[in-house]
Amino acid sequence: MVFIKYILPALAASQLAFASSDCGDTTIENQSDASGISSCSTIDGDITIKSTYSGSLDLGSIEKIEGTLSCNGGSNVTGITAASLESISGNFTLKGLTTLTTLSFAKLSSVGAIDWEVLPGVNSLDFTTGITEVGDVNIIDTHLTSLDGITLKKVGQLDITENSYLKSCNISNLEYATGQINFQGNYDNLEIDLPNLTNGTSMTFRNISSINIPKLKSLTGQLGFWNTDFDVLYAPDLTETGDVVFTGNTKLTNVSLPALKTVDGGISISRNDKLQEIDLPKLSTVSGAIDLTGNFYELKFGALTRVDGAFNVESSNGTFSCSDLKSEYKSDVRGSWTCKTNDSNPTTSNGKSGTESGSSSSGGSSGSTSSSVAMANGVAAPVAGVAALFYALAQLV
């Protein structure tokens, strides 16, 4: 009896230790491997799906992964289902899953980070609860038509690139971004709705048809638009930002930032041939350069008191007047001063054409005299255009 008294607790402890070892780091090569951890409610480690996995994967009754969930190059993985999974503390990484069509995570709400790249068969997400907590989100080269199922309140970096079927992005709960928000190379008529976003770092947009940011108040970095398809940019609450860039937006007729007071960088507006009005009535301080070129007839600088860089304003519109600008603001500009009206070939401060009709290229340079604008332009340049090709080549190595 004494023997049983002491041996039973010891056996129980060893049983728990054994069970715990089965619920740690796991490599899944087939469904049998997944079934082997199906009784675990929590995985204390990483789940790695081997690139050789074939078919659909069911993660059973797992509720938490205290680590990562990843698959790189699993070209024969057709589906991943985790009906009970609520959280992934680390990265959720899927790259090069070229036949994947199903992502079903009905209860998933918290993820350390999302990193999905080259998922050409994924056109929707079966995320019933919706992901509300996440660090960075990088979604590159998928066939998603919307981001339904990602309902964030706060995000780090949000990079949505080369999703050519993505027609709408409505993240209505998003209030704050600690990293860059970047949209480029998606569906040409992509509509972006961020109705509750108030603060962030940099925001850059290319090839979109509409943008709704009614509550945006402050950015510490750049606000930039290239080659968009909307006619009016209206951000009524924005009071401060880093660089401001508008380049090659062929349908843009009006830029209205009525509350903007401080630009901690430069302002570059060029090659927006239909742009008629630039409304910055409360702009007070610009720590970089002002470089505005195009066919505009009205420019409102109602409160400008300081420009630390150069001032270059050139318009091909004969009704635009430089005299009022010169009398009111020239003494507030610390750099060089240039203002031209009725100029058939307005040019940016670095000598590039300020109109689309006079430009040999429709993309690229912002034409800014601010070094911070120029650098941000480089960072925002497309980098994922050949992502699928790299994955294909990688399989041959």
Description:
- The protein has 397 residues and is mainly beta.
- It has a 20-stranded parallel beta sheet that branches. The protein has a four-stranded parallel beta sheet with strand order 24-27-30-33, with no helix packed on it. The chain has a four-stranded parallel beta sheet with strand order 25-28-31-34, with no helix packed on it.
- Helix 3 links the parallel strand 35 and strand 36.
- The radius of gyration is 26 Å and the shape is elongated.
- Keywords: Cell wall, Glycoprotein, Secreted, Signal.
- This is Leucine rich repeat 5.
Distinctive features:
397 residues, mainly beta, 2 domains, 20-stranded parallel β-sheet, four-stranded parallel β-sheet, 5 helices, disordered N terminus, disordered C terminus, secreted, CWI-Assembly_Regulator, signal
User: If you compute it from the alpha carbons, what radius of gyration comes out, rounded to the nearest whole angstrom?
Assistant: 26 Å
Strand content: 25-35%
> What share of the residues lie within helices?
10-25%
The largest pleated sheet is described as: 20 strands, parallel
| Number of domain units | 2
Mean pLDDT: 87
State the assembly state of the protein chains: single chain
The number of helical segments is 5
Low-confidence stretches: 1-21, 360-397
The number of distinct β-strands equals: 36
> How far from one another are the termini?
64 Å
Class based on secondary structure composition and strand pairing = mainly beta
Shape: elongated
